[in-house]
Design brief:
This protein has helices at residues 26-34, 45-48, 56-64, 82-91, 138-141, 143-151, 170-188, 208-214, and strands spanning 12-16, 40-44, 68-74, 114-120, 155-162. It is an alpha/beta fold. The protein contains 8 helices and 5 strands. The chain has one domain: Flavodoxin domain (Rossmann fold, 3-Layer(aba) Sandwich). α1 (26-34) packs parallel to α7 (170-188). The structure holds flavin mononucleotide (FMN). Residues 18, 24-27, 74-78, 120-123, 165 line the site of flavin mononucleotide.
């Protein structure tokens, strides 16, 4: 865990991406419920960058100022919406977030900070199982994010998920929002979600035949 701020709570930065906020049921409700909590900064990428031109130094300054980075988004094609991917590609730069640049500058700006995803999916937990409709668990599908955090020396923690959106009625949304507010209060107090280290789990390998064809 990184240091608490002078106000004795962690500084939580929510990088939020939803291409159609006005039609959102769950993400909008989650944002509204926590955006004014002390210690929380909500940064809406589609609102800030309608032209999708990301101001990298300003984004990096926001990141430097947080203890916990939350990426919040609906699941789009088993990943994040395009502007969030653009944000990752541009902001997590070589020599700042990871590695070493040509001038020898080391990329350690995010070292030790926590990385948590807040994700909604149309599909239920059941369809995200081996043998289920989507063949893979969400934890498997989210590994590119987990590895991104790892490369930046960040601490990847268990995501906050809302699944099966089609079958979630108004009462279900309210219950989820209540749970999220509690989860956020815990986070701000420094009670962080469990660390995830999938690379310690058994390896899921490609079939020999396929790998041979690539060589
Ligand atoms: C372009 C697009 C791609 C989507 N891809 C997925 C997906 O891969 N898996 C899934 O479970 N749901 C998928 N969905 C459903 C959204 O994740 C779901 O509608 C969203 O999480 C609901 O959140 P909201 O109420 O904030 O809009 C997709 C929706 C759209 C529009």
């Amino acid at each position: 865990m990184t240091e608490k701020s002078a106000a004795d709570h962690l500084r939580v930065l929510i990088i939020f991406a939803h291409p159609s906020y006005e039609t959102s049921r769950i993400n909008r409700a989650l944002c509204e419920a926590v955006k004014d909590l002390p210690g929380v900064t909500l940064h809406d990428l589609y609102q800030t960058y309608p032209e999708q031109l990301i101001d990298v130094p300003s984004e990096q300054a926001l990141l430097e100022d947080c203890d916990v980075l939350i990426l919040q988004h609906p699941l789009y094609w088993y990943s994040c919406p395009a502007l969030m991917k653009n944000w990752i590609d541009s902001v997590l730069a070589l020599g700042w977030a990871y590695g070493q640049d040509n001038q020898g500058k080391r990329g350690d700006a995010l070292k030790g900070k926590s990385f948590v995803q807040v994700i909604s999916s149309g599909g239920s937990e059941d369809v995200y199982q081996r043998g289920g409709h989507n063949n893979f668990t969400l934890a498997e599908l989210l590994r590119p994010f987990e590895q991104t955090a790892d490369l930046c020396d960040m601490l990847y923690r268990q995501p906050f998920l809302t699944q099966d959106l089609r079958n979630l009625d108004a009462a279900g949304i309210n219950a989820k929002v209540e749970g999220y507010v509690q989860w956020m209060h815990d986070l701000l107090r420094g009670e962080l979600p469990p660390l995830i280290n999938s690379h310690h789990a058994p390896q899921a390998d490609y079939a020999q035949q396929h790998t041979a064809k690539l060589n």
